[in-house]
Design a protein that fits this description.
single chain, alpha+beta, Ubiquitin-like (UB roll), 2 domains, 6-stranded mixed β-sheet, 12 helices, 16 strands, about 35% helix, about 20% strand, binds glutamic acid, binds magnesium ion
Length: about 450
């Protein structure tokens, strides 16, 4: 306890010497929104001691700010949770001088971790893997669109021009926002490797280096939040929405996943194994395929997500895998040896980083634990519906698949899955009652 206090004192002194006076403590809600509080540096010991109180219904709050009835929320009288900063995650916030970022863990009144907290869920999956003496190594890749005001209360794509596919410089990015973002992300300690203009007009991608799954989830969560915040500083909107436009493709959240043993050696590859993969690696891929319908609920968590899927999209449509094949849901990149890994292309950028990473690693864990058998890889064109089962076509179908997947539910935690399903089914219900622009355009004039 004393040494902790001394550590906190030393941390505070160090931050003060760097002219820092605020610690921005944040955590992910159920859908990946960055929630938290700006804490004056002098108040940090209190935040570390009793934690920062929030109403538990923060996990059940919609993007419109409404609190929906879920276990532990309204029915329990809107009790508190306490968020305690995890000082090991302290990091600079270069676009906000004088402030630093710190992630928090969420505790219930009895001192246990909140089971619906996405950071709790990903740690739980790490513990399961550790029981097999394994650790998942994750490299996240995220795509997003930048939008600017259209002057009429709406948004249009930023920097639009024909064919700026992987074009560098100011052609597709007239204000140099991407380079500024890349440098800020590096200064923020996010271990970013590269950034580029993506396939679609106004679409960009940032790649993060790989690390152990909890750290990778923390960094991907902070990266999404940072990209949005930096865009706001530039007067732009960065959206990770899966398929924001009818005339352009969607934004993916690809995960590179390998497995390491306790000594830090890659056990995913094996030069003598089939396809250069070890038995463990093949089981892990098979686990992701086996649990894909349920995993979709976490990797593709919005109603809009399912509009990104389809043939010829570079996004998946079927539950398949291939060797260096971008039309498959799981691609095994050509690297072998220590770089052997799978690239899971299922997720879209709206996914909560903690949950897509937790779900994917949990599916890989189950594949290894249950010795799931890998089928033959898809060859050539991967969008042949005769050749492989189809992903769930809608969010409700994916939610039903998650509910039915008791093995995945046990690994992620029953309480969490119950809360997630209730939250998302409420979202589906609200959408089903809402009259859309499409309906008015299609029906109003002739019918
Ligand atoms: N935008 C595509 C997707 O939604 C991926 C493009 C790429 O291969 O990077 O997944
Ligand atoms: Mg990409």
């Amino acid at each position: 306890m004393n040494s902790n206090r001394q550590d906190v004192g030393a941390v505070i002194e160090q931050l003060r010497s760097q002219d820092v006076d605020v610690v921005r403590v944040s955590y992910s809600d159920m859908i990946g929104i960055d929630r938290g509080r700006d804490v004056l540096l002098d108040e940090l010991p209190g935040a570390l001691g009793h934690g920062l109180p929030f109403s538990r219904c923060i996990y059940h709050t919609t993007p419109m700010g409404d609190c929906i009835p879920i276990q532990g929320g309204m029915e329990d009288g809107l009790p508190d949770i306490h968020v305690r900063p995890d000082l090991s995650t302290l990091a600079p916030l270069p676009w906000e001088p004088g402030a630093v970022s710190c992630l928090g863990d969420t505790f219930l009144a009895d001192g246990t971790l909140a089971p619906e907290s996405p950071r709790t869920v990903v740690s739980r999956v790490a513990e399961h893997l550790a029981q097999l003496n394994l650790q998942a190594i994750i490299g996240p890749e995220l795509e997003y669109f930048l939008c600017e005001s259209d002057g009429a209360g709406g948004y249009r794509r930023y920097g639009e021009g024909p064919g700026n596919v992987y074009v560098v410089g100011r052609k597709g990015d007239p204000n140099g926002v991407l380079l500024k973002t890349l440098r800020h992300l590096r200064e923020a300690g996010l271990r970013v490797t590269a950034a580029n203009h993506e396939f679609c007009a106004g679409q960009f991608e940032v790649n993060l280096n790989h690390s152990e799954l909890v750290d990778a989830a923390d960094r991907a969560f902070r990266m999404k939040s940072a990209v949005q915040e930096i865009a706001r500083h530039e007067g732009l909107l960065a959206t990770f929405m899966a398929k924001p436009f009818n005339d352009e493709g969607g934004s993916g959240f690809h995960l590179h996943l390998s497995l390491e043993n306790e000594s830090g050696d890659n056990v995913f590859g094996d030069a003598d194994g089939e396809h250069g993969l070890s038995e463990t690696g093949r089981h892990a891929v098979a686990g992701v395929l086996r649990h894909a319908p349920a995993l979709a609920a976490l990797a593709n968590p919005t109603i809009n997500s399912y509009k990104r899927f389809g043939p010829d999209t570079l996004a998946p449509w079927l539950i398949d895998w291939g060797l260096d094949n971008r039309s498959a849901m799981v691609r095994i990149p050509p690297d072998r040896g220590p770089g052997t890994r799978m690239e899971v292309r299922l997720g879209d950028a709206t996914a909560n980083p903690y949950l897509i990473i937790a779900g994917t690693a949990a599916a890989a864990y189950l594949g290894v634990r249950d010795k799931a058998e890998l089928t033959a890889p898809v060859e050539g064109y991967g969008y042949n519906p005769e050749a492989a089962p189809m992903l769930p076509p809608t969010l409700p179908a994916a939610l039903d698949a998650l509910e039915a997947d008791t093995a995945l539910t046990e690994v992620l935690g029953r309480y969490f899955v119950g809360s997630f399903l209730a939250y998302k089914r409420n979202e589906v219900e609200r959408f089903q009652r809402f009259v859309t622009d499409w309906e008015f355009r299609e029906y109003a004039y002739h019918l």
